[in-house]
Amino acid sequence: MPSIATHSTDSLVALRGVGKTFPSGTLALSGFDLNVRGGEFVSLLGPSGCGKSTALRIVAGLSEPSEGAVEWPSPRTPASSESRIGFVFQEPTLMPWTSVFNNVLLPLKLKGIPTEKARARVVAALDRVGLKEFGRAFPRELSGGMRMRVSIARALVTEPALLLMDEPFAALDEITRFKLNNDLLQVWQALATTVVFVTHSVFESVYLSSRIVVMAARPGRVFTELKIDAPYPRDQDFRTSAEYAAFCRSTSEALAQAMAGGAA
Amino acid sequence: MNAPSAARERRDRTLRIALPIVVLALGLAIWELVVRIENIPPYVLPDPGLILQTLVSDWALLFQSLLVTLATTFEGFLLAAIGGVGLAVLFNQSRLVEYSLYPYAVILQVTPIVAVAPLLLIYLPQPLAVLACAWIVAFFPVLANTTLGLHSVDRNLADLFTLYGASRGQMLWNLKLPSALPYILGGLRIAGGLSLIGAVVAEIAAGSAGAGSGLAYRIAESGYRLNIPRMFAALLLLSVAGIVIFYLLSAINYLALRRWHESALEQER
């Protein structure tokens, strides 16, 4: 199967010269440019404090840029943010007081869709992450990995054009993380959606991404971009290949330079 | 779980029920013995047997009074629950209302109810004054706890609601109130006991003014008449009422939270 990323050149969302200064005076981002094309899997990679989460929140509309602009050029993208964006936090961020089903239902419920009409979509989203049987369970009855799957199902239930993920697997053990990496790639390809993925793991970003944006800190900015043009689907063979190792090496070097440059 | 630890747990549970009973029996026996040996007259200290006897013989009167006090307590509690949660929600929705009213809620709380009760009895009809006391004492913990709960919403969940365009009402109903539920229930558990105390304080204040028929009034009245066994019997009923209220609210708390909140979860492993 050819990569979707190579076919699409439409810009889905673009940040132009975005700067963000927090009320405390901290300069989180400065002159940040990012062009996300439809169908891409982009990772923002950088040391902690480089503003990658801030950039993601600005794309989501959860934070206003102090300068610059966020543009959604394509007229085909729905105007309301609730249907164009799915967001996955570092923590599963589920409502502990209600069932998995109701958690995944939430985005549709907030849009005013009656439960009966939404049921099939919720079940489909749960099925996609392999949790069809767990709708009645409460979040705390699930493992960390399963909770993260619920969180992903909730982000997918609105069939968003853009999936934003803020270090979603950072708190998971390696075995679970590898499994979820594979499942995420599968979902991304099956839904032909676009992902912006924040991580501080070189290995994870190389494995997942079609493009890696390496960021430098103080102030947060784009240091360089790397294209990972290994074909999808990627699997265990890719993870152990020399090609993967080479990509990891070049990405690590870029990150090291970014950190050296960032400190200066 | 292996067999020895299960056995130990069973023994532990038996001890937890048996030991307080043993202590109670021992205390009552000593009490009875002291009264008999020292030949203490019942108008100074009645023995437990006589108190029980009085409880049976005066049951009709005492039960009637118990119902009066319980009705006041329940109404006070209900008003405190509605008022406390309602006001906290109002504060949460409007900063201006919070700034305007919160200091007065605090004043209501810190002024000793024993001192307020006689004043209330002057301006309000007696049953209403008693109810007002029960309410004043009980409502603040509900208000304070609910306010804390409404402010303890998970930041990321709040962001998620914003992202999906939740209205203020949806935010309140689907996010803030469920998040606050453990806090609200904690406040209600305190309020239940306090509203009983408020009712008792007001009844005693009213009793000295010569009106009323609640349990606390019976205690005051029996005191004037040196009917000490009846005082103890009424006191016993009050304690039992307090215990029942506490466990009832704990049970509600458990039923509401058992599937998700740390405080109500069964211990695992």
Terminal-residue CA separation of chain B: 7 Å
Major β-sheet annotation of chain B: none
Main sheet: strand order of chain A: 5-6-7-3-8-9
**Strand residue percentage of chain A:** 15-25%
CATH class of the largest domain in chain A: Alpha Beta
Fold and architecture overview:
The complex is a heterodimer of chains A (264) and B (269). Chain A has helices spanning 52-60, 81-84, 100-110, 115-128, 144-156, 174-191, 202-208, 236-239, 242-263; strands spanning 11-21, 27-37, 41-45, 67-71, 85-88, 162-166, 194-199, 211-216, 221-227. Chain A is an alpha/beta fold and 264 residues long. Chain A has two domains: 1-77 and 162-264, Rossmann fold (3-Layer(aba) Sandwich); 92-160. A six-stranded mixed β-sheet of chain A has the order 5-6-7-3-8-9, with helices on both faces. Chain A has a three-stranded antiparallel β-sheet with strand order 2-1-4, covered by helices on one side. The model of chain A is unreliable at 1-8 (pLDDT under 50). In chain B, helix 3 runs antiparallel to helix 4, helix 3 crosses helix 9 (215-224) and helix 9 (215-224) packs antiparallel against helix 10. Chains A and B meet through helix 3 of A and helix 7 and helix 8 of B.
What would a concise description of this structure say?
The complex is a heterodimer of chains A (264) and B (269). Chain A is built from 9 helices and 9 strands.
Features:
heterodimer; A: 264 residues; alpha/beta; Rossmann fold; 6-stranded mixed sheet; 3-stranded antiparallel sheet; 9 strands; globular; disordered N terminus; B: 269 residues; mainly alpha; MetI-like fold; 2 domains; flat
Summarize the SSE layout with pairings.
The complex is a heterodimer of chains A (264) and B (269).
Chain A: E1 11-21, E2 27-37, E3 41-45, H1 52-60, E4 67-71, H2 81-84, E5 85-88, H3 100-110, H4 115-128, H5 144-156, E6 162-166, H6 174-191, E7 194-199, H7 202-208, E8 211-216, E9 221-227, H8 236-239, H9 242-263
Parallel strand pairs in A: 3-7, 3-8, 5-6, 6-7
Antiparallel strand pairs in A: 1-2, 1-4, 8-9
Helix pairs in contact in A: 3-4, 3-5, 4-5, 7-9
Chain B: H1 3-38, H2 48-57, H3 59-93, H4 95-110, H5 113-123, H6 126-150, H7 155-163, H8 168-208, H9 215-224, H10 228-257
